[in-house]
Amino acid sequence: MSKKRNNQSGIVYSTNPDFKPEQEEASDAQTLEPAQQNLRLRLDTKHRSGKAVTLVEYFVGTDDDLEKLGKQLKTFCGTGGSVKDGQIIIQGDQREKIFQWLLKNGYKRTKK
């Protein structure tokens, strides 16, 4: 038996032609203003073959806005990176650069 479950509702089959499975409510995540964001900067080397990356965590908002912020930070630092699992990953130890950029752009509650 496969441990992978694509359908979490538990309904296998229904003979009722008018049956519609319950849909999960899509949360309309609103992106907080930059001054209200509580972002954290962290240096991480775990599971990366000893290479250091800077993580930006605790962003509250839509995935599109997170991607946009990640692209802006990568462009500013001139390095690569990605956005995964609600975190922005920037290659190298860029904490000071990112911290200054965030303060300049209105992210007042950022912690290193």
Please give the structural blueprint.
Layout: E1 40-44, E2 53-57, H1 63-77, E3 81-84, E4 87-91, H2 95-104
Antiparallel strand pairs: 1-2, 2-4, 3-4
Describe this structure in words.
The chain has 112 residues and is α+β, with helices and mostly antiparallel strands. The protein has a domain at 34-104: Translation Initiation Factor Eif1 (2-Layer Sandwich), CATH 3.30.780. Helices cover 22% and strands 17% of the residues. It contains two helices and four strands. It has a four-stranded antiparallel β-sheet, covered by helices on one side. It is elongated, with a radius of gyration of 20 Å. The mean pLDDT is 86.
* Helix fraction bin: 10-25%
Distance between the termini: 46 Å
- What's the count of strands? 4
Which strand-content bin applies to the residues? 15-25%
- Structural class determined from secondary elements: alpha+beta
Q: State the helix count.
A: 2
